[in-house]
Amino acid sequence: MTRSVLVPSSLTREAEDKREATRKLGYVARAATVFRVDRLVVFPDPSGERGRFGDGFVDTVLRYAATPPYLRKEAWDRRDELEYAGVLPPLRVRSRTGSGSDDSGSLRQGIVTEVGSDDRVRVNCGMQHPVSLPVPSGMTVREGERVTVRVSSRRPVRARIVDEPPAGFQVYREDLATSLAREDAGVRIAASRHGEPLTVSRLDDIVESTGRGMTVVFGAPERGLPELLGVDPGAETIPSDAASEGSEDDDSEPHARFDLWLNTVPNQGSEVVRTEEAMFATLAALTLE
Description:
The protein is an alpha/beta fold. Helices cover 23% and strands 23% of the residues.
């Protein structure tokens, strides 16, 4: 099961300055962490960007936020986009722990600092010093590459490189069509005030479907998804009977990108619900069990 959240590159278009824009992205990163998002994707919205903070500002700040504090100095040089990185709230990602003799310990991100000639590498994974670890059979790593390390003991140090994603979310820059076409996209949901109002009676069915994976797409300030994509919400939803066998005369399904347009704040008291606020409201409902 994969949880993916997509936000546009114009996400900070209404921010007064870079400090406010950075703080806003911190709340986005917090929402992704709290609700265990696996993939946080920034999709291009060139017509909505104002260009004040430079191309790639949104994904750079989010990637920095997703980097564990113990790796930030190693992974990031001084960059203009990170001028106000100090205002980012701590994510405090919970480490995933395994059970059993083969999976005991916690997963941590590491950066390869040196590649040896004996199939061993030195990895900075937040210990007091970089640790020397064997490279698993069939895996190739390069200096500067990030790897996942399972640490089962600190004193003495017992750790190994594993082919598993670390705890927390990963940030990608990817176009909308590519993300929605992934095999693990799950239920594709457009979060919009123009969507179907989320009700208690409807929630059970929706949560049951998202339990098998989901991709949720959000719009930008002053540019909701219909305007951002230039579509009518109804025309962008796959009809409920399109997937049924024998439905051969429906020609809208190949052009539809979403399974559902959903309004998760149907009785909003504010004229505008910010993207980061919509993320908390939407993911809180869709991740219920």
